[in-house]
Amino acid sequence: MRFSIFYEHQLPRPWDDGAEARVVHEALEQVQLADKLGFNTVWEVEHHFLEEYSHSSAPEVFLSACAATTENIHIGHGIVPVLPGYNHPARVAERISTLDIISNGRVEFGTGETSSDMELLGFDVERADKRSMWEEAVPEIAKMMSQAPYEGHTGKFFSMPARNVVPKPVQRPHPPIWVACSQRDTILMAGSRGIGALSFAFINPDEARQWVADYYAAFEACTDPVGLVPNPNIAVTTGFLCHQDEQTALDRGLDGFHFFAYSLLHYYQFGTHTPGRTDIWTEFEQNRAEMGFEKLNAQVDEARAEDGTGIEEGGLDSLRGCIGTPDQIRDFVREYEDAGVDELIFVSQAGRNRHEDICESMELFAREVMPEFAERAPEREARKRERYAETIERLQNFHNIDLAPRLALEIPANPGV
C-alpha cells in the first residue's frame, strides 16, 4: 500500500489579494514535507476555468517546482487532458519528458479526457469526441517519447509529420501511464489497455474490492495496450486529516472534503455557473445538509454507528474518508489494503482547510500509521508482480520498438524509484 497526496489548489470565495499565491506556496511546502515523510507521489490536476474548485491550470509549472525541491517523492500528473483541443500531443510528450529529466526519473504520467462543460466548451471540444481523442492521442504520445525520430501520424483529430520529439525521458521507454477513472467502465478500460487506474470516485473498501477485481481481470485479458510498457496499478482517492482527537480531526478536515465533493458536483452535475460571479462556497453552506454534507459530531456519530443507523463501524465511510484518529484511519486503510488497492491518494488541500493543520496531520500519519503498511509493501508488491508476471512480460513484448538513444549524460538513479 502506497500513500500519496493530491492537489486541485482549491480556493473558495471570497478572495483577497495574494490568495492564489498563498495556496500555491503552501502546497509546495506540503509537498516538500511529504517527500521527507516518505509519501509516494504528489498528484497535481490540470483544470481550466473551474474557479474555487481548481486553480491548477498549469500543473507542469507547479510540478517542476516540486521536482526541483524534493528528492524521492514521485511527480504525478493527475491528470493531463490529452485531447488535442486542450494540449497538442507533441507538447504533452515534451512536457512529460522534460519533467522526467528535472525529477531524475520520478514522473507518473496520468492522462484523461475531462468531462466538465465549462472546460470542454471553453476549448471547443465536442463531448461525443473526447474518448476517441484520448484513444488517438495517448498511444502516439508514448511513441513520441520512445521513437527517434517519431514516425509521424495522420489521424482524425491531429496529424503531424515525422519529427524527433525531444528531449526524451529518463524512464525508458516512457514514464508509467495512468488514466483517470470515475466509473466502472473506465476502470475496465484502464485494465484492458494495460495502464494504471486513478480512481477519482470516492468509493468505500467494499466497492473498491469489486473495482480491483474487475481491473485486474481486464488487465490479464489485455490484448491492446496503450503504452509500450504496462502499469498494473489501481489508486483510490479519499479525504484525509489525522489528529489524536476525533472531533478535532472532523472540525479541521471534514468541511474541506465536503466542499471538494460539492464543488465537483457543481461543475460536473447540477451547478449553474456564471464565470466570475457564482459563489460556490456560499451555495455549499446553504445547501450542504440536503446534499448529505452536514457537519458531524463524533459522539453522535459513534452512537449512530453502534445502533446501525449511521456510517460504518469506526466512524469512517467514503463521504468522510480518512478523517479521524490514527487508530480509525489505520483500520480503514487496512480494509483498502485487504481489498487489493495499490495506492491511496489523500485529499487534504480542500475548501478552507488550514496549511498548518495539513502539515501536522501528515506528520502524525507518517509517524503512527504509515510504518505498518510500509513494512508489508515490498512483500505485497512482490506477490503481485509474481501473480501477473506472465501478463506483464507478454505486454512488454507486444510492441517491437527500437528505443531512442539517450541524448544527454546518464543521470544517477533516484533511490525513490
What would your notes on this structure say?
The chain is of the alpha/beta class and 417 residues long. It has helices at 19-37, 59-68, 89-102, 117-120, 130-146, 184-192, 205-220, 246-270, 280-287, 298-306, 326-339, 355-368, 370-387, 389-396, and strands at 2-7, 41-44, 74-81, 107-112, 153-154, 159-160, 177-181, 196-199, 234-242, 322-324, 343-347. The chain has a single domain, classed as Luciferase-like domain (TIM Barrel), CATH 3.20.20. The strands form 2 sheets. Strands 1-2-3-4-7-8-9-11 form an 8-stranded parallel beta barrel, surrounded by 9 helices. Strands 5-6 form a two-stranded antiparallel sheet. Helix 1 runs parallel beside helix 12 (355-368). Residues 307-314 and 406-417 have low confidence and may be disordered.
Strand content: 5-15%
Structural class determined from secondary elements: alpha/beta
CATH topology category name? TIM Barrel
Estimate the mean pLDDT confidence: 92
CATH level-4 homologous superfamily: Luciferase-like domain
Considering DSSP H and I runs of 4 or more, what fraction of the residues is helical? 40-55%
Describe what is shown at a glance.
The chain has 417 residues and is α/β, with parallel strands linked by helices. 44% of the residues lie in helices and 13% in strands.
